[in-house]
Amino acid sequence: MITLSVLNDGTSVRHAFFTREGGVSPPPFASLNCGFGSADLPENVAANRARAMARLDLPPERLVTCHQVHGVDVVTVERPWNYADSPRADAMVSRVPGIALGVLAADCAPLLFADSEASVIGAAHGGWRGALAGVGETTVAAMESLGAARTRIRAGIGPCIAQRSYEVGPEFPTPFTTEDGEAALFFAPARRPGHFMFDLGGYLEWRLVRCGVGTVQRAPHDTVAEEERFFSYRRACLKGERDYGRGLAAIVLEG
């Protein structure tokens, strides 16, 4: 698993961005696939989630995830729920110790947040749609409603698709630059005429800094290129594979 110093430095939280290694699932989900939304056997996914939670010294029933829909809705977590009861949302916040807020991703960016002084944590799923719509900002606002201060919030952006792997079409930049012209900084010309390479992680970091988050750190990984370590939706599509695993990121307040 991967951790970021911004969430490790003298904090009262534990967190992890898990790689695809160390699970029980067979190909193409090998091996730590934590997504029930895949075609993997549910018992494999449950076993993988249990293994991940063991790394955080938690029983598996203390992990909560959402049915992610690439939106900006945020759920305040007061108690764990079963996967079958997962709400449709892309972010969670909590001040309850011992509950792991989990985000699933396979190229999208997992975002983890903490304000240790206020004992408030958050987690969000940052695909391009959610990033553009402001999922980072809505998560920060929800943390503030629980007593956090955005200037104290530390945010970690986990492994995601890197700019060098993220080619987009000619129509893609317009909604971003319409929202703020400075977003053009996150689009570089692609080899194909009229196409662009999009920096999802950089854009998310910029949005969080712009809204006043105190400290932001990005993981230096590319989920598409690093096949041995990460699941990737885009890589699966390029290889003609019908399905793919989902990686887990999680954060928990110390009890």
Features:
255 residues, alpha+beta, CNF1/YfiH-like putative cysteine hydrolases, four-stranded mixed β-sheet, globular
Q: What's the gist of this structure?
A:
This protein has 255 residues and is an alpha+beta fold.
State the CATH class: Alpha Beta
* The CATH architecture: 4-Layer Sandwich
How many helices?
A: 7
Largest sheet: 6 strands, mixed
Number of strands: 13
Mean pLDDT: 97
Radius of gyration: 17 Å
Structural class: alpha+beta
Proportion in helices: 10-25%
Shape: globular
Beta-strand share of residues: 15-25%
Could you name the ranges where pLDDT drops below 50 across 5 or more consecutive residues?
Answer: none
What gap, in angstroms, lies between the N and C termini? 22 Å
In sequence order, what are the helices and strands, one letter per element? HEHEEEEEEHHEEHEEHEHE
CATH fold assignment: CNF1/YfiH-like putative cysteine hydrolases
Biggest sheet strand order reads: 3-4-7-6-8-12
Q: CATH superfamily, please?
A: CNF1/YfiH-like putative cysteine hydrolases
How many discrete structural domains?
A: 1
How would you characterize this protein structure?
By secondary structure, this protein is an alpha+beta fold. It has a single domain (5-160, 216-253), classed as CNF1/YfiH-like putative cysteine hydrolases (4-Layer Sandwich), CATH 3.60.140.10. The protein has seven helices and 13 strands. The protein has helices at 5-8, 42-55, 128-133, 135-145, 173-179, 200-210, 233-238; strands spanning 13-17, 63-64, 74-76, 91-94, 100-105, 109-115, 120-126, 154-157, 167-168, 187-189, 196-198, 215-218, 247-253. The strands form three sheets. It has a six-stranded mixed sheet with strand order 3-4-7-6-8-12. A four-stranded mixed sheet has the order 1-13-5-2. Strand 10 (187-189) and strand 11 form a beta hairpin. The longest helix is centred in the first third of the chain and has 14 residues, at 42-55. It is globular and about 55 Å long. The two termini are 22 Å apart. The mean pLDDT is 97.
